[in-house]
Amino acid sequence: MCNNYRLHVPVNVIGDVFRQADRPLHFPDGQPNLPATDEIRIGDRAAVITLEGETPQLTMTPWAWKGPGGRPVFNFRSDGRRFDGSTRCLIPADGFYEFTEAQPGEKRKTKWLFTMNGAPWFWIAGVVRDGAFAMLTTEPGPDVAPYHDRQVVVLAPEEGMAWLDLSRPEGEMLKALPAGALSVDRVWPPAQS
Q1: Is the distance from CB of 93 to CB of 126 less than 8 angstroms?
Q2: Is the separation of the CB atoms in 42 and 114 below 8 Å?
Q3: Residue 54 has what DSSP assignment?
Q4: Residues paired with 66 in a beta bridge
Q5: 153: exposed, middle or buried (Cβ count in 10 Å: 0-12, 13-18, 19+)
Q6: Which residue from 73, 68, 69, 63 is spatially nearest to 96, judged by alpha carbons?
């Protein structure tokens, strides 16, 4: 499951999506500096967008709340659940990672980067609970299935408001993308030249 993602998207680019929808993004804690980051990990504070009334707002929020046994909940199954009573969030990303068994001769697992074809960045659908966020997961689509048995819910930039305000049915959004929507590149171990 996704326990690591990437964000190389400036805050003004994220804000453009909301300006174009006539719902400017609000920054209750001040506009954060979002430096390009290759590794956002469980426990890190990261940018998420939620709705406060009708206003989208960006806050820096910890990734993962504590589950009943004290373990971090960083991914949350969307299958068979409704989120109309939840604090829904959008997690901006331009890539997420999955890991498979180590390549022959390597000790570390093989690391794969997934990006969205035709879009320089995307949203990962999530929920906020106890002051922290988790990514929603679903059955894997054809692009992710060879690498993992679950995948995060990926939404195109223009689909974000529909998740926040549920202006489209959840079932239309909380599913894997069709084949060819995501590209995958091996980032570890690096390819031999």
Answers
A1: no
A2: no
A3: T
A4: 72
A5: buried
A6: 63
pTM: 0.94
The encoded tokens of residue 140 equal 């894997």
Residue type, 50: T
pLDDT, position 192: 67
Phi, psi angle pair for 15, to nearest 5° = -65, -30
Q: Please compute Rg for the chain using Cα positions.
A: 16
Q: Distances from the Cα of 108 to the Cαs of 96, 102, 180, in angstroms?
A: 18, 6, 28
The distance between the two most distant Cα atoms of the chain, rounded to a whole number of Å, is: 54
- Distances in whole angstroms, Cα of residue 123 to Cα of each of 9, 108, 155, 161: 11, 28, 5, 10
Given a contact cutoff of 8 angstroms between Cβ atoms, the answer to whether 91 and 81 are in contact is no
Q: Which amino acid is at 17?
A: V
CB 75 within 8 A of CB 5: no
Residue bearing tokens 């992710």? 144
The per-residue pLDDT for range 32-57, each reduced to its tens digit, is 989 999 999 999 999 999 999 999 99
Pair of tokens at residue 162: 């529909």
Q: Are 137 and 170 in contact (CB under 8 A)?
A: no
